[in-house]
Amino acid sequence: MTWTLIILLAVGAYAFKVTGLIILGGRSLPPIFERCLGLIPAAIITALVIKDTFTVGQHLTLDARALGIAVAVIAAWKRAPLIVVIVLGAAVTAVVRQL
Amino acid sequence: MTPWWRDPTLRPAIVACLTLSAAVGVFGVSFGVGSVAAGSTVLQTCALSLLVFTGASQFSAVSVIGAGGSIGSALGGALLLAARNGVYGLAMSRRLDGSLGRKFLAAQLTIDETTAMAVAQPTRRAQQVAFWVTGVALYACWNLGTLIGALAGSAIDPKTFGLDVAFPAGFVAMVWPLFSDQRARLAALIGGAVCLLTVPFTPIGVPILLSVLGVLVGLQRPSSAPNSEVTQ
Predict the structure, then answer these.
(1) B192 touching A, CB under 8 A?
(2) How far apart are CA B91 and CA A36, in angstroms?
């Protein structure tokens, strides 16, 4: 890890945030954009779950994480609080890894 | 008007925001541990959480450097992951009020969790309260967790406790309320499928950007009553 990387990443990450929220965000967009923007979290957060559950780098894998996330999905479906969903997911994954 | 912290209708949302922040703090511990284990100093690890403040990018950068990747590849992957905060900013700009200075502060807090908690609320006021409560609490918890993890060093292996699953499990809990909307379910299905199919063929970080194709579901005009989107 170098300070050059940290500074470049900090500046780049903040630039994306400011571009969306302030530079582009002040403009009024047509309703069709509004509808699409509203769907962004559902699409991207689901993709993050898929990535963190079924991939290692560029490889697709099926391991203990899949069972942990399956239990987390059931917990979320049963409307369990967030901390319960996380603890169940982590605990099941850890136990399966010990088997 | 009742102050937001005494408004009983906002209480469940505030509790949810604080719970999420505490959980993310635990995840911050695993970032701190992983970052130091990958060769960063404690100061560098804390600087990443304080200045970059977008978990997925931080994890990506640290893991690429730890695996022996170049600064360029580490930066590229991390910035690709950070780009989605730009689209979150667009979504949040529809919902946040306040001065320009306040918006520059809000920009630093515009990440997965704050956006997800805000958009899940039924009213504009609740959306703003959810954004700021999550943002401030999560910033504090994430950085405190990072510091604790970095100091604990490599004494803990996050995988032994399944902490690497805390991230996706938290996302599952966050995205679930959005699925009460049929179009969000379809967008999520497309986003997830695109990610799964493109992982083997694209650089790390790109599948997450491509999953934004799921929002094209929004091109079609809604056919049912508009209030169906706010089901409790």
Answers:
(1) yes
(2) 10
Interface test mutation site (partner A, options B21, B90, B202, max chain A beta carbons within 10 A): B90
CB contact under 8 A, B208 and A44: yes
The pLDDT tens digits of the residues spanning B80-125 come to: 778 888 888 988 998 998 899 999 999 999 998 899 899 889 899 9
Residue numbers of the domain that contains B191: 181-220
Residues B34 and B101 occupy one common structural domain: yes
Domain hosting A27: range is 1-48
CA distance B128 to A90: 31
A1 & A43 share domain: yes
Candidates A9, A10, A43; nearest CB to B188: A43
Angle between the A82-98 and A64-77 helix axes, to the nearest 10 degrees? 150
* Interchain contact, B212 vs A43, CB within 8 Å: yes
Position A54 in a domain: no
For residue range A14-66, list pLDDT tens digits in order: 999 999 899 888 676 678 877 887 787 788 889 888 988 998 878 899 999 99
